[in-house]
Design brief:
This protein is α/β, with parallel strands linked by helices. It has ten helices and eight strands. The strands form two sheets. A six-stranded parallel beta sheet has the order 3-2-1-6-7-8, with helices on both faces. The chain has a two-stranded antiparallel sheet with strand order 4-5. Strand 6, helix 9 and strand 7 form a beta-alpha-beta unit. The longest helix is centred in the first third of the chain and has 16 residues. The protein is elongated. It starts with a helix and ends with a helix. The structure holds 2'-O-acetyl adenosine-5-diphosphoribose.
Length: 242
């Protein structure tokens, strides 16, 4: 590991981590855009990750998410997630995690205050605005579960294509990007906005932007440096004490 990069971490007052699917690749969670194993190489996002798709084929979409949810239940945080959480414990208040991942692995690793911009696959919520009959303790089981009175469906609490990001998380992420003096961009292709735009926000505010990704990404042009390494191999060295 380049000593200069470690020095960037040591001297940083405020670090923001912007993570994407590659962060969890070494845990066994597939990415989206890998040419062979990525989910969007095998499945059409327009058929699975939009509100229109869910309304058209609720059972198909529900089952697809249920399968991913079950797979994620069976994996573990990797050395990259753990190195970030460990840094936060050793340096309270110095590192903010902003993630596009819905897998909850940063949280499982022990990271606090994770800003999950695309939601959480372990949770669900009402598809349509809940009426008086839509009660959390009276959800009828099914694929998807639903309100037994009006039929309102439960849907995965993730952000689908064409949907807004959760306002509070996005505002907090924007603030963290503006306030940091080092942003680590880990395991994202940088193709999906507004999340990807946070790297430029940090750079324009004067922060160093260090990319950790074994491949080139759309954000390389805003990077101060690109570290061609995987999350689980690089982050323990980068964020470790010795
Ligand atoms: P992508 O699949 O687009 O990109 C994954 C990135 O991780 C690629 O640049 C890989 O080179 C890199 N990568 C692979 N293995 C890695 C490893 N072990 N260590 C570090 N990097 C590695 O995933 P995202 O950028 O997260 O949106 O995709 C953004 C959004 O598009 C996702 O949040 C999802 C998807 O549609 C929603 O669900 C709303």
């Amino acid at each position: 590991m380049d000593e200069e990069l470690r020095a960037w971490v040591r001297s940083a007052r405020a670090i923001a981590v912007l993570s994407g699917a590659g962060m969890s690749a070494e845990s066994g969670v597939p990415t989206f855009r890998d040419a062979l194993t990525g989910l969007w190489a095998r499945f059409d996002p327009q058929q699975l990750a939009t509100e229109a798709a869910f309304r058209r084929q609720p059972q198909l979409v529900w089952d697809w998410y249920a399968e991913r949810r079950a797979a994620i239940d069976n994996v573990q945080a990797n050395a990259g997630h753990l190195a970030i959480a460990d840094f936060q414990r050793r340096h309270p208040g110095r590192l903010t995690v902003i993630t596009q991942n819905v897998d909850g692995l940063h949280q499982r690793a022990g990271s606090a205050g994770v800003l999950a911009l695309h939601g959480n696959i372990a949770q669900d919520r009402w598809l349509d605005a809940p009426r008086a009959c839509c009660q959390a303790d009276a959800i009828a089981p099914g694929r998807p579960p639903h309100c037994p009175v009006c039929g309102n469906l439960r849907r995965p609490a993730v952000v689908w294509f064409g949907e807004m990001l959760p306002e509070a998380e996005l505002a907090a992420a924007q603030a963290a990007a503006e306030a940091c003096d080092l942003m680590l961009v880990v395991g994202t292709s940088g193709e999906v906005y507004p999340a990807a735009g946070l790297a430029a926000v940090a750079r324009e505010a004067g922060a160093r932007v260090l990319i950790v990704n074994p491949q080139a990404s759309a954000l390389d042009r805003v990077a101060t440096h690109c570290l061609r390494a995987t999350a689980a191999s690089a982050l323990p060295l980068l964020l470790g004490d010795d």
